[in-house]
Amino acid sequence: MARLGALFLAVIAVLPLICSCFSADSPTDRRVLVLVDDLALRSSHSLFFNSLQSRGFDLDFKLADDPKLSLQRYGQYLYDALILFAPSTQRLGGSLDQNAVLEFVDSGRDLILAADSSASDVIRGIATECGVDFDEDLEALVIDHTSYAVSETEGDHTLIASDALIHSDVILGDKKIEAPILFRGTGHSVNPANSLVLKVLSASPSAYSANPKTKLSSPPSLTGSAISLVSIMQARNNARVLISGSLDLFSNRFSKSVVQKAGSKIKYEKSGNEQFVTEISKWVFHERGHLKAVNVSHRKVGEMTEPAMYRINDDLEYSVEIYEWSGTSWEPYVADDVQVQFYMMSPYVLKTLSNNQKGLYSTSFKVPDVYGVFQFKVEYQRLGYTSLRLAKQIPVRPFRHNEYERFITAAYPYYGASFSTMAGFFIFSIVYLYHK
After folding, report:
1. Shared domain check, 297 and 251
2. What is the mean pLDDT of residues 314-340?
3. Looking at residue 102, what is its pLDDT?
4. Mean pLDDT taken over the chain
5. Whole-number Cα distances in Å, 115 to 95, 311, 357
6. Mean pLDDT of 209-235
7. Which residues, at least 6 apart from 138, have a Cβ–Cβ distance to it below 8 Å?
8. Where is the signal peptide (predicted)?
9. Least enclosed by CB within 10 Å: which of 98, 142, 202, 262?
10. What domain range is 145 assigned to?
């Protein structure tokens, strides 16, 4: 009885955590676990953390090597997002390891990972599994002798001032980031064949990755704009991952620094870091670009209920409602590139859906003159947006024997030929029998 009582109390204690997890109806009502290698980061990076808390996120700070760490309890995840600000931690504490973090992402949850030149093998391993490869030189930094911040003393020029941002309002917001973004850290490469990973902040063509404390004995492995400073990944299950080669990118010091890019006479009183990390975190945590589809329906033209099957050449209507999460509520999603396929082995019909500017997308078409098992398929994938994959199966039958028309218009020439043959045979018979 004592054991049952203890188990009951433990379940009661964890229920509030489970109930506050991610839900499709409220994507941003979530708990976030923040792992750091030094609790001093709570104050040195407070601007970033305060931004998250002001937007309704519940942050739980813990040391990355805490022996009591756990992402799950009784088979349920306790958190819906993970911020890993512990680049130098050699081993994660408790039940956490590289596989546990990757399973967390595989379950559809989000991750922000920040590294630097001291990144451990576990941090590099997680990044690699997410499609990002850090420079193999463990002490390499991104160096740029033309696009550096002039406040940096002459020398290695490892304080980069970059404005090579991805052009996407859904990822970075519709307000342009005017000031350069300060970056000091290690660079990484992205496989161009991997469509799930995107470079958000890139280095300039003159940049390269190397150890600033040693002379170059061979050409750098990473050079130019191929170096990614910050990358994002959206998995096929719509989980989102942000990978940065710099932990300082999120710091108060970089956010408040005066910036003047080398070769430019413009001095900015404040860098673009605070705006950048705020806007990119909104995307990672699904405050932007999160779509949902509801009320998928199809019917014969003029009818209200969905049929169990269609007949060839029936006229039908298809409709679906699509909404986007604004951070506080669901708003109608407006686009002109949503398409539906009427599919069996290959698309027999491909139609672009029209919308009423209120989230309702619809179209109508004629069922093809082919019978079998078809699917209504919507596969919507656009940069920065969660992907929509909708499928609804429906059989299509041919005409029954009593449903065909008695006389087919296209067959009139054959009808005429038959009757003219009969008339000709009758006349020939009369003439043959009675003509002398």
Report:
1. no
2. 92
3. 93
4. 86
5. 21, 59, 43
6. 86
7. 117, 118, 119
8. 1-24
9. 262
10. 12-284
